[in-house]
Specification:
This protein is α+β, with helices and mostly antiparallel strands. Helices cover 20% and strands 34% of the residues.
């Protein structure tokens, strides 16, 4: 009963939406990895000014991009009257924006959810309308990734939020949730573990999954993986589709060694890749 009450208090609207703007003719749709938190919010990972990654909720009910105060302090983000301009905001999957205006504060929703560990992971901010309105978004929860396509649309400048003298009742709720944390015995979620980085791209072929590109100096390149190689197995799991690869690497963290069985031309080989840090 208590958990249901608290989940109701910290509800964040994250229903799927898309702006009616025209898609950029030369902009392809991009696959954006996501996960559902324990509270069923859509979470994506982002880098801010090439630092991170951080966990952000996709929140169509939030008008702006919000960066939690501890995160802003950690990366040295300078705010003036609660606002800051990010040189670069990059979503996992490759989409990025420059000169993004952000609100630096910790909303009571995030403070409460982190304090009680309700989401199952530490949350660092909200991706609001001013960012996500630039994309046509396809939410299909039967897939491991979302499809986002850039739009030829610039949303209006965000306006300051909040009221003079503080958030009032919102601050009171945040304090209440901290107090309930102690009473309930729940512990904050542990810090997130960055996902491991391999450094190669894939394409679905008739005969399985082929390597379409290998990033220079990446773990994959250092292991000897080449463009055109066909993936046969990852740690003994048979690979026939990109979804198989995603499942085999879903919990990959930096430092983990993977055994890849590949086919190069007519020969089959086994490679070992040690995951690095990054998106």
């Amino acid at each position: 009963m208590l958990r249901r009450l608290l989940q109701a208090l910290v509800f964040l609207g994250c229903a799927a939406s898309a702006h009616a703007g025209d898609s950029k003719a030369d902009a392809p749709s991009t696959a954006v990895p996501y996960r559902l938190t324990d509270t069923q919010h859509v979470l994506v990972r982002v880098k801010i000014n090439d630092k991170g990654p951080f966990n952000f909720i996709v929140d169509t009910g939030c008008p702006v991009l919000i960066v939690a105060t501890p995160v802003a302090k950690k990366i040295g983000l300078q705010a003036e009257k609660g606002w800051a301009v990010l040189d670069k905001l990059e979503l996992e999957g490759g989409l990025s924006q420059s000169k993004v205006k952000a609100r630096v504060e910790t909303p009571f929703q995030l403070e409460g959810m982190n304090g009680m560990g309700l989401a199952g992971v530490e949350l660092h901010g909200l991706l609001g309308y001013s960012v996500i309105a630039k994309y046509k978004m396809e939410f299909d929860f039967t897939r491991d990734q979302l499809r986002w396509k850039p739009l030829a649309y610039d949303p209006p400048e965000p306006r300051p939020i909040g009221v003079k003298g503080g958030a009032g009742g919102l601050e009171m709720i945040a304090g209440l949730m901290k107090f309930l944390t102690v009473l309930s015995g729940l512990k904050p979620a542990p810090p997130p573990v960055p996902r491991g980085f391999l450094g190669f791209q894939m394409s679905q072929a008739n005969d399985g999954v082929a390597v379409s590109a290998v990033l220079a100096k990446s773990p994959a390149a250092e292991a000897g993986l080449r463009k055109g190689d066909r993936l046969l197995e990852i740690d003994g799991a048979t690979i026939t589709s990109i979804a198989d690869v995603q499942r085999a690497t879903a919990r990959l963290v930096a430092g983990t060694e993977l055994r890849l069985r590949i086919q190069r031309g007519t020969e089959k080989q086994e490679l070992k890749i040690t995951a690095g840090h990054g998106l």
